[in-house]
Amino acid sequence: MDTRDYSKQSHTTWDCNYHIVVVPKYRKSQLFQTVRKELREIMQVLCKRYDIEIVKWNVAKDHLHMLLRISPKYSVSSIIWILKWKSAILLHNRHWKKKMLWQKNFWSRWYFVSTVWVDLEVVKKYIEDQNRKDVREDWKQLDFNW
User: Fold this and answer.
1) Is 126 a catalytic residue?
2) Residues 110-130: pLDDT tens digits?
């Protein structure tokens, strides 16, 4: 028996999950670190506004992984554009209003998207493990040979 949780609209029954990765422009990890907490809050508000369910996500040191459940009434590219555009404006107004930071371009134009259906649990685990991977890489960069 299928245990998936399907959503319904007037003429549609659906379960559309997408693994999305976005990066800040120039992969500015130090800059990204300063806004991680606020970015979480902003993305939660934006997703709620557009009726997008955040299944799993992780704000890594220089990129953002999201597993989103998006209604088929929206195109994935338009949702990504909206999330990147509105979050960039909100971050700019909160942090860099007096400076011109890349003309309000916080995000790179690049993004990754993949549909997820069969291996949903595998993708959830991958997103959870991203922080562990970042910590391991940070430790490898430290030189303990004094």
Assistant:
1) yes
2) 999 988 876 777 888 888 887
Say how far apart CA 63 and CA 108 lie, in whole Å. 10
Q: In this structure, is residue 73 part of a structural domain? A: yes
Q: In what order do the strands lie in the sheet with 107-116?
A: 53-59, 64-69, 17-24, 107-116
Give the torsion sign (CA, 50, 53, 58, 63). negative
> For the domain that residue 104 is a member of, what is the CATH number?
3.30.70.1290
Tokens of 146: 């004094």
Assess if residue 87 is contained within a domain: yes
Set 18, 50, 74, 126: catalytic member = 126
Domain with 93 in it: 12-141
- Computed on alpha carbons and rounded to an integer, the radius of gyration of the chain in Å comes to 17
Q: Tell me if 146 is assigned to some domain.
A: no
Cβ of 65: how many Cβ atoms within 10 Å? 19
When divided into structural domains, the chain yields a total of 1
Specify the pTM: 0.73
Torsion of CA 3, 59, 46, 35, to 10 degrees: 160
